[in-house]
Amino acid sequence: MPGADDKRFYRDLKRKIKKAGNKKRRRHEKKALEDNPAEAHWTEYDFGANSSKWLNGMDEDKTRR
Question: How far apart are CA 50 and CA 23, in angstroms?
Fold first, then answer.
């Protein structure tokens, strides 16, 4: 079953990417809050390499329809 192995691999990869991105985002927000509390809620964070957008919708196979 090579398809199931690929699916498991991509699911695990997406989980790791999202976890790494979330850690960096929280660290960024904490630093922004310490540096400038008045403007901290306006800061934007770019996930960059830790973005999982390219993995969205990869498992659209016939069993999900």
Answer: 10
For the chain, the domain total comes to 1
Amino acid at 27: R
Question: Which of 62, 50, 60, 55 has its CA nearest to residue 21?
Answer: 50
What are the pLDDT digits (tens) for 3-54?
677 888 888 988 998 888 888 888 888 888 888 888 877 877 777 777 888 8
> Domain span at residue 34?
11-49
The answer for residues whose C-beta is within 8 angstroms of residue 24's C-beta and 6 or more apart is 45, 47, 50
Cα distance from N-terminal residue to C-terminal residue, the chain: 20
DSSP string, 11-29: HHHHHHHHHHHHHHHHHHH
**Number of other CB atoms surrounding residue 56 within 10 Å:** 9
